Amino acid sequence: MNDQKQRDKALDLSSSFIVQAPAGSGKTELITQRYLKLLGTADEPENILVMTFTNRAVDELKHRIISSLNRAKKKPPLEEYQRKTYDLASEVLKQSKRRGWDLINHSSRLKIITIDSLSNLIVSRFPSLDQMIPPRTMVDSFEYEKIYRQAAEDTLLLIEDDEYQKIISSVLLYLDNDIERFYKLIEQMLAKREQWLPKIFSESALDVSHLEAFSNQLITEHLEVLRFHAEKILGSNFFNLLKENVREEVSKINSFPGTEASDVDEWKIISELLITKNNGSWRKRVDVKIGFTPELKDEKAKFKEIIEGLEPNLKFKELLINLEHLPSNNFSDSIKQSISDIIQVLKLSVAKLKIIFEQECLQDFSEVNIQAINALDSREQVSDIALLLDYQIQHILIDEFQDTSYSQLNLIERLIEGWQQDDGRTMFLVGDPMQSIYRFRESQVGIFINAVRNGISNLKIKSLILNTNFRSNESIVQKNNEIFSKIFPDNDDLLKGAIQYSPSNSFSRIEQKEAVSFYPFGPNNDLEEADEIYKIINQSLLESPQKEIAILVRSRSHLKQISSILKKNNINFESIKTENLRSNLFTRDLLSLSRALLSLGDKLAWLSILRSPWCGLRLSDLLILSESNDQTIFSQLMDLESIKGMSAEGIERGSHLFLATRDAIFAEGIFSFVERFTYALSQLCNDNELTKIERTIKTQFLELLNYCEMNQNLNVKAIDSMLQELYAPSNPSNVKLMTIHQAKGLEFDTVIIPGLGKKGKSDNLPLMQIQEFPESKVLLSPIKSSDDNKENETYLYLQYLNKEQSHFELMRLLYVAMSRAKNKVYLLGGVSKAGKATSGSFLSLLSEHYEDELDLDFDINQSDKNSPEITAPKLLRIKTLDSLSNQSIGITDDQKNHPKSFDLIYQSTLGTIVHHYLELGEFNPSDKAVETRLREMGAPSKLLKSYTTSILDILSKTQHDNNFEWIFKYRDSTEVEAEYRNSKHSVVIDRLFIDDGILWIIDFKTASLNKNETIDEFIKRQKDAHQSQIKKYKEVLSDVFNLPCKSAIYCPAESQLIVI
């Protein structure tokens, strides 16, 4: 059926619409046309706000609008389907000219943004009064996870406070005194605080009484639906038969039970009589187990006849089964106390998080959204925000509405709070609930269902459904209709996220033989599956070299074998965010170099560099260097000729590494780490010899190091965490490897979906189950305590809901994958060792459709006979070492401050340890404590004694310094290792305090006199070296303290306090 009438209705600017637009139906073109028509009649472009969920979608829509406007300046298109957009764009150009917009040259007036950008817009335009400096919004998970952990740790420290000791101890005890579980609980809940935080403070919705009341509501709603169906299906003869039952609790049921929570037990008895518990099917046998003795022969026959007549009533069966999955409306006293205590602890953790945000001048997306909602809630008078949002915005269009979360819906509802039906303002929502696949981002497809049924806020919204598919050929559309009409549920279910299938009609009349092909495999046949994929791709490229082929997977791990086979067979492919940057060999070499420069004692890092292509040491030489426990690798590289057994080539290559890294190591404290790293890298590898991908990786890695250094977080753990967030670049190709989520919104000539038999990642049981519901309701429950034998009913109910939502999302994920194809779809997957489709896999959904193909005699006992043989990686190395560059790191020999001897290259280690004790105010550590710290930092055994003596001497000299009392005396204002930020810099101050109304900044330096250097020359050298650093400190602190500021460098080795 043609849907043109629906598309025409969508351009009625007097009405609000929600449009269900399946894959390939041209929804982006439709939203483009609606936007153009609105622009053609608008007073100002800013009257119209378009929102979507990704920057990619924003860019695509902006591109479409500008392209349409540019095309409207040319001749009309001949194609009828393009004429509509052309005409609408022409009207926009006329309106633009009349009102002087000049949209083509001033496209910033087109308000097309992500919904997160809207929150940022509101918060940035209307900041809170205490926000002097706009906070930076964190975007990387490694960063906000670190902040959440810090907040959790700070919360636990409150156990020492008498006011909070009881509740924190209670929560710890509930978690079996497992501190790590305590941290994880807080981290998990802080990450989801948009769901529960507003409800704690504004609605008290998380009080136990409210949770019980809502649970009671859910139970009642379920029983009302169950009774409605039961009354249509079961008659009086059913209850007459129950009277004859020998079980007392059964014979008492003489009519339909009520719909209160107290009636659940009677409904469960009815369910037990009709349904077998082990497999959830209608009961086949009526016997004494359910209370019908052999003497009740006629009654048994009649009861069996009733059950047989229930066969088609699937909804009734589902409702009966789900009686086992209802929440509790009466929490036990221990659960009540635990929830109450956990909520109090969560309040404390939020307070601690806010303190960290203020100190660090940071915020996360949750904070932005919460503040945006608070800003909209505060519109009690006509204000700037009211003028901006209530008067300026007349029309809102939202693309991909199926991906909305409840917190985002909350923001949208507040945005249109003052809107009334037929007041000239409209909403236009477009999406496809069958493509809702972002539950991990808290999106809830039930929001789309509810908007179709009930509208949003005060607005009733008309529903439109498109059904024409312009993407796929007729054969694919028909096959998808055939498959998914059976896979998808028969009815929508808002709570479970169940969506019934909406079939499409193909615009194309092209039929393709075997448009969808299925290749079944036995268990553990990843290699055989990968080989088949290579054959498919190779044949497709031979037939049509220019056409795009996409391999789509649920998980990146499913691509490992495939990419290996394609490389082996010289098939060029583009990996789109599938290979973690850290797994790239060049990245590993860069990481090893950074670790080596960060710590001379990191033995593994130095050995890794020696083995890398930059040096290429053979294993025999590598083994010799690794044997010494008294010296670091770098110490040995200084004098390789004295090491017995080293080959001549090994000496040459090892010396090359020493000379390449020496100046970078000696320049510590003079240049930034990024500068030293870049210099060492330039000595080891010629930039011109790097591939395009390696140059891109190098740029990414340097940006990463610079970020860590600028944020005072330069350590191996931070670098490693950031690398987990990044993906290796890839050369463009028409063969693409990506996840299904990345393919959403894209289309390809051929789609290959491997790994159908594989499951996705298994979710660990969360310490707290939490679920949002319509009308700002929320339900949560903690995991059982160590004293409980089983989970409470509410936790199990929420776990069941989560499982059901995941199951239905799996269907939609498969639909998204198969609907990307224009011409061909290839499905490949293997059965489990049991010879069946693995539960939770795509194959489990498709097994009924491909029942005959899977009914093969697979060898289910093989242990992956096709697994590739594991071999040691070949040694890759530069055959001829380039002579080292004459380029200096940028300092003269006088400036280098080289150590007085090679044995003292560990002077930075000495300085780090002295810094540590000065910051702690610990001036008399034991010899053993100092030696332990030296060992931890890689100092060689032969230097331990002399270094320990040097450190203790400096600390002793500090105590006897004339400035000691003034610098280290206790003041209320004293801060140690204090971190401060402004909009430009982040700094860490060794020591600061206020003395006589002056803010003093003290920076510790362990530098000492160079040979033949006078004390005046030493002081000048220190001032010159650290002037810019101190200036930065003052600049940052001047934004925080309204006091006169002075600074000084303290050099305990020379008893010098140098005021700058």
- Rg calculated over all Cα atoms: 35 Å
Structural class: alpha/beta
Q: Percentage of helical residues?
A: 40-55%
How many angstroms does the end-to-end distance come to? 82 Å
Give the count of helical stretches.
41
- The share of residues in extended strands comes to 5-15%
Uncertain stretches of 5 or more adjacent residues: 891-904
Shape summary:
globular
Can you give the mean pLDDT? 87
User: Biggest sheet: strands side by side, in what order?
Assistant: 3-2-6-7-1-8
How many strand units?
Answer: 23
Largest sheet, strands/sense/barrel:
6 strands, parallel
Topology record:
Layout: H1 4-9, E1 17-20, H2 27-39, E2 48-52, H3 55-71, H4 80-99, E3 111-114, H5 115-125, E4 136-137, H6 141-157, H7 165-174, H8 179-191, H9 193-203, H10 208-233, H11 236-243, H12 248-251, H13 264-274, H14 297-309, H15 314-321, H16 333-360, E5 362-363, H17 365-377, H18 384-392, E6 395-398, H19 406-415, E7 426-431, H20 446-454, E8 462-465, E9 468-469, H21 474-487, E10 505-506, E11 516-521, H22 526-543, E12 549-553, H23 560-568, E13 574-575, H24 585-598, H25 603-611, H26 619-626, H27 633-638, H28 648-666, H29 673-684, H30 692-710, H31 716-723, E14 735-739, H32 740-743, E15 748-753, E16 768-773, E17 777-782, H33 793-818, E18 821-830, H34 842-846, H35 851-854, H36 893-896, H37 907-920, H38 927-936, H39 941-959, H40 964-968, E19 975-981, E20 986-995, E21 998-1004, H41 1015-1038, E22 1045-1051, E23 1056-1059
